[in-house]
Amino acid sequence: MEVECNYHCYHEKDPDSGLTQDLKAAASCFLIVCEKPRKKSLAACHNVACLAHDGWVNEDGQPDLGKARDYYIRACDAGYASSCFNLSAMFLQGAPGFPKDMDLECKYSMKACGLGHFWACANASHMYKLGDGIEKDEAKAEVLKIQAKQLHKERQKSVQSLTFV
């Protein structure tokens, strides 16, 4: 696949050619890998959730929030920070048939924060500072804010140290 991409990008000067995108097929492949006993991929479970959330797992193209939630929970429970963060966003926003739940939003933000997701730390800090759906706690808000800043700083360092040849 890399050879295909490099050929079209550099030789043909056409980065959009090559393989055609088929998100339904991708969802099917991710689902197979996610469901594998013993060697499941948390990234595959997360990707199934993302595609379900965006409507790529159903024939009608409608989002399947229940399936998205289930696969996000599976990946989050196994320690996949982005799934925890996406769950927190789902519970923050709510949707038809999927009620807003600030307690669960806080729970998943805190879990994602503990797993190193700086946006989750920032969101949790904001919730505690305002008392948004949870008891106001400015000391906890400050600790989470500092943690978010530290995680962001670490992320920036890792991005800056990346060099391309």
Estimate the helix proportion, in percent.
55-70%
Quaternary organisation: single chain
> If you compute it from the alpha carbons, what radius of gyration comes out, rounded to the nearest whole angstrom?
19 Å
Strand content: under 5%
Mean pLDDT: 86
Question: Sheet bearing the most strands, described?
Answer: none
What is the H-and-E element order?
HHHHHHHH
Distance between the termini: 20 Å
Organism: Callithrix jacchus
Function: Required for assembly of mitochondrial respiratory chain complexes.
GO cellular component, one term: mitochondrial intermembrane space
Family: Belongs to the hcp beta-lactamase family.
The gist of it:
This protein is an all-alpha fold and 165 residues long.
How would you describe this structure to a colleague?
This protein is mostly helical. The N terminus is likely disordered. It comes from Callithrix jacchus. Required for assembly of mitochondrial respiratory chain complexes. Belongs to the hcp beta-lactamase family. This is Cytochrome c oxidase assembly factor 7.
How would the blueprint of this fold be written?
Elements: H1 2-11, H2 23-35, H3 42-53, H4 65-77, H5 81-93, H6 102-114, H7 118-130, H8 138-160
Helix pairs in contact: 2-3, 3-4, 4-5, 5-6, 6-7, 7-8
Keywords: Repeat
InterPro entries: HcpB-like, Sel1-like, TPR-like_helical_dom_sf
Subcellular location: Mitochondrion intermembrane space
